């Protein structure tokens, strides 16, 4: 139960094990056509959604280097490990970064974006780069408000990391007019790592005409050109595309609303159980990510705690990153996760706390009852 790679359904595993086919064959083109159609459905968009061989970071980097130029001024939202990464990428490519920060565990303040964008009368800000669901802390940022301020600015593009929000909660790309949306296969998509996706608006494509940053493999214009004939510029990870087809079909069967509801239920079940277990939520409770819950263990060593859970119950939880290592652990409930997984992980956490003498079985029972309320 880490926030990626997430569990892979049997049907998807079977699709992976097929013999690869030629990537210039009609059979493969049909697959590209159907997965592209379903990707648009998942993104709730009419925009192009391109599939890249590479992890989520490749998709974010592609979004940045295809639309911006050296010296461009950009705003980066930073309230966790991933926000920090997008600052590094932007700086590496010579962009001038204005950071909007918030303490890890708290959401970015949309008003700060509004203010900076409103003050930019010369329209020097070319993009706003931010993370929707900050996986390192379990915080969801208010993308809806922030994107409305970006639209009001009228020049800046939105470049958004939706890696752990897409396929977990509502990300209506057209309605919110998001320009560039990046995601990765090993998260909400329920397939192994190796593919990433970039949705590009018309405005984003227009920006590619002026962009002068170096790119070759990640030049999205090549991907757009081949997509016209349902093809790829280079040899794609064919078996992962087999898996993608299967996973997207499963998602369509479940339906977007049901997928979002399931993630919401699991978030509420875990977060309320955590409180009943006398543990603390690391993130601000009003801004919890649908896909991951970060738990502050207080004086208990979080690394030891999650090692015990791995050894005793064979459940892998994620640790804290950087200064949070040993202080928090994170429960992923993203993708192919069911109610039973949630009940099991709460039981495992509860039993471990009993063994540490922190609580009694009464609290564990209460936590399970509390969680069950949301799972009914
Ligand atoms: C996993 C993840 C990524 C992508 O990381 P890769 O290792 O490159 O796939 C990006 N952003 C967030 C918020 C993530 O959780």
CATH architecture of the largest domain: 3-Layer(aba) Sandwich
Largest sheet: 7 strands, mixed
CATH class category label of the largest domain: Alpha Beta
Radius of gyration: 21 Å
How many helices does DSSP assign? 13
**How would you spell out the order of helices and strands?**
HHEHEHEHEEEHEEEHHHHEEHEEHH
CATH superfamily of the largest domain: Type I PLP-dependent aspartate aminotransferase-like (Major domain)
User: CATH fold name of the largest domain, please?
Assistant: Aspartate Aminotransferase, domain 2
State the share of residues found in helices, binned by percent.
40-55%
Beta-strand residue fraction: 15-25%
Hetero groups: pyridoxal-5'-phosphate
Strand order, main sheet: write it out: 1-9-8-7-4-2-3
Q: Could you say how many structural domains there are in total?
A: 2
Distance linking N and C termini: 21 Å
Q: Detail the poorly predicted runs.
A: none
Mean pLDDT reading: 98
């Amino acid at each position: 139960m880490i926030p990626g790679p997430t569990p892979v359904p049997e049907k998807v595993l079977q699709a992976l094990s097929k013999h690869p086919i030629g990537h210039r064959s009609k059979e493969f083109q049909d697959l590209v056509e159907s997965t592209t159609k379903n990707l648009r459905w998942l993104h709730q968009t009419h925009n192009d959604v391109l599939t890249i061989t590479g992890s989520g970071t490749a998709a974010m980097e592609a979004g940045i280097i295809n639309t911006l130029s050296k010296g461009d001024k950009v705003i980066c939202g930073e309230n966790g490990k991933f926000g920090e990464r997008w600052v590094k990428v932007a700086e590496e490519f010579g962009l001038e970064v204005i950071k909007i920060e918030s303490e890890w565990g708290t959401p970015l303040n949309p008003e700060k974006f509004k203010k900076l964008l409103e003050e930019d009368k010369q329209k020097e800000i070319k993009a706003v780069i931010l993370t929707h669901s900050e996986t390192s802390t379990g915080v969801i940022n208010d993308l809806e408000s922030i994107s409305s301020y970006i639209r009001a600015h009228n020049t800046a593009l939105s470049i958004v990391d939706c890696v752990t929000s897409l396929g977990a909660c509502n990300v209506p790309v057209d309605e919110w007019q998001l320009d560039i949306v990046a995601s990765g296969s090993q998260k909400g998509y329920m397939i192994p790592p190796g593919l990433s996706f970039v949705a590009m608006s018309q405005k984003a494509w227009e920006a590619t005409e002026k962009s002068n940053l170096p790119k070759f493999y990640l030049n999205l214009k090549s991907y757009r050109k081949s997509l016209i004939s349902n093809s790829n510029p280079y040899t794609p990870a064919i078996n992962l595309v087999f898996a993608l087809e299967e996973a997207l079909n499963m998602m369509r069967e479940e339906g977007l609303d049901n997928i979002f509801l399931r993630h919401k239920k699991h978030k509420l079940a875990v977060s309320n159980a955590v409180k009943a277990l006398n543990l603390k939520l690391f993130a601000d409770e009003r801004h919890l990510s649908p896909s991951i819950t970060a738990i502050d263990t207080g004086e208990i060593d979080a690394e030891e705690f999650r090692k015990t859970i791995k050894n005793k119950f064979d459940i892998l939880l994620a640790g804290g990153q950087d200064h949070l290592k040993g202080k928090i652990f994170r429960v992923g409930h993203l993708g192919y996760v069911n109610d039973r997984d949630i009940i099991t992980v709460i039981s495992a956490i509860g039993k471990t706390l009993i063994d540490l003498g922190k609580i009694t079985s009464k609290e564990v029972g209460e936590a399970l009852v509390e969680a069950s309320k949301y799972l009914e």
